Amino acid sequence: MSQIFMSTYEHLRITFEGVAIAIIVGIAVGIVISRHKAVAGVVMSVADIIQTIPSLALLAVLMMVFGLGNTPAVVALFMYSFLPIVRNTYVGITGVDKSLTEAGTGMGMTRLQLLFKVKIPIAMPIIFSGIRVAVVTALGVATIGVFIGSGGLGNFIYRGVQMGDVKMILWGAIPLSILAIGFDVLLEQGEKRMVKSRARRI
Amino acid sequence: MRKILKIISVSLILAISLALLAGCGGSQEKKIVIGSKNFTENMVLGEIFAQVIQDKTDLKVEYKENLGGTMVCFEAIKKGDLDIYPEYTGTGLTAHLKMDVINDADRVYDIVQEEFNKQFKIKWLKPLGFNNTYAVAVKEDYAKENNITKVSELVPLAKDLTFGGEHEFFDRQDGYEGMIETYGLNFKSAPAKMDVALKYQAISQGKMDVTDAFATDGQLITYKLTILEDDKNFFPPYYAAPIVRNDTLEKYPELEEVLNSLAGKISDEEMQMMNYKVESEKKAIRDVARDFLTEKGLLSK
User: Fold this and answer.
1) Are B240 and B275 contacting, i.e. CB atoms less than 8 angstroms apart?
2) Tell me: the pLDDT tens digits for A104-117?
3) Which CATH class is domain B134-228?
4) Which of B41, B75, B196, B204 is the mutation pick for testing A, counting most A CBs within 10 A?
């Protein structure tokens, strides 16, 4: 039993580390490329390509660079979480109504003020839904970290499959499903609230 | 809005500090890392190494079990992420050194010993005793009825039998083609290729009659199968032994003696029995390893 808690904790830790880095880097990159359309295309394509690399292959390559354990798993999760966050940030910011930014400029806002007081708040629900997709995907992808010796619930699932032991598979799969559904619902609530608060402010 | 931003930033900070904390955890004390591949036998062996080392030295052992296969373990030991893992001589020869199959067990051991030292700075310690090679298996009842114990005795019967095995067996140098050629086997029909997990079920349900097996497979016991003797010596040797990084041995020379205390201690049958206990009786690997070591008097505490 305690093993399940340890694995769940480990699973969450890997997932959050990967997603946290992706949130920081993804939002920053998303903001930068919203100003430079040409760069945006390149960044998006690269992120798209990363997304299509089979996770096992990506892990195998990362293992050669980062060694065994949690680090390569975190890096892989970062790479997979990056696309939804960067794309939603980009779409959210470039999608802000022209009339609003013009109004801001008209009020004498600087570029930074415009970004932080107008664009980001308005784009926030969209960015947030990117984060939601990233978290739920990452929870799933983290299971394959078992191949390179990172902890997490994948250990139970993989070992269960090897031994044809359904009970063991469920020990991993049930907590994982609870986590994925739980976070999805939780983040959805957050998203809804943001949309509401935005509606109120606008 | 403010609130949500606050919540996000707080959780971010938390996550990052957690990450940093985790990074600081491992100080460089006297510690070695053992690895194992993704199947029961290898995991049992890794556990045995870990317990013996913990028992006889004051080294701290970290055991990374069930890594994603031969290549993951091998890359990791070359890189220094692993210090020790259980490897098979035949695998060392064909998969890592990319050499052709050789049937003489001693020669294979000498070659991997020398080449690993030269190319990878890795040392092969003494073999544990058993040989987990490919083998030909039939149902126990069938072997008794027809009174056969050797693969060559299968030749006159083969025209009424079907052969089936996992995909890999048909792609390997030491697999199907070589086997039927060496023995002159002519089976009733083209062989059935299937997933490794299904093959024992298929033979026990009578869907096929002959299959390839690993000599130390615990499922041979579960499904009441018998191994036929490879009397023409076709299958190359896969003797298991601990392999260790040279620089680990320089740092902790006591490891060599400790691990060599296992040399020749595990027979085919004993390994098979341990695999069976884990796979069919669902015993914990740790307990199976400890019971074995205690029984053999290999633990001092």
Assistant:
1) no
2) 999 999 989 999 98
3) alpha beta
4) B75
End-to-end alpha carbon distance in chain B? 62
Which chain B residues have a beta carbon less than 8 Å from that of A13?
18-19, 22
Residue of A63, A124, A201 with shortest CB distance to B72: A63
pTM here? 0.82
Spell out which residues of chain B touch residue A60, defining contact as CB-CB under 8 Å. 68, 71-72
pLDDT at residue B140 is higher than 90? yes
pLDDT per position as a tens digit, B242-267: 999 999 999 999 999 999 999 999 99
Percent of residues in chain B assigned helix, strand, coil, to nearest 5: 50, 15, 35
Judged by DSSP in three states, A33 sits in helix
Report residue B14: phi and psi, to 5°: -60, -50
Helix-strand-coil split of chain A, %, nearest 5: 90, 0, 10
Same fold, B31-131+237-295 and B134-228: yes
Neighbours of B25 (CB within 10 A): 6
Domain ranges of chain A: 2-201
Q: Is the ipTM here above 0.85?
A: no
Domain formed by A2-201, architecture = Orthogonal Bundle (1.10)
CB contact under 8 A, A148 and B67: yes
- In CATH, what class is B31-131+237-295? alpha beta
**Whole-angstrom distance between the N-terminal and C-terminal Cα of chain A?**
50
A129-181: per-residue pLDDT in tens? 999 999 999 999 999 888 888 889 998 998 888 777 888 899 999 999 999 99
Instruction: Give the residue extent of every domain in chain B.
Output: 31-131+237-295, 134-228
Which residues, listed in sequence order, are joined to residue B64 by a DSSP beta bridge?
B35
Chain A residue numbers with beta carbons less than 8 Å from the beta carbon of B83 are none
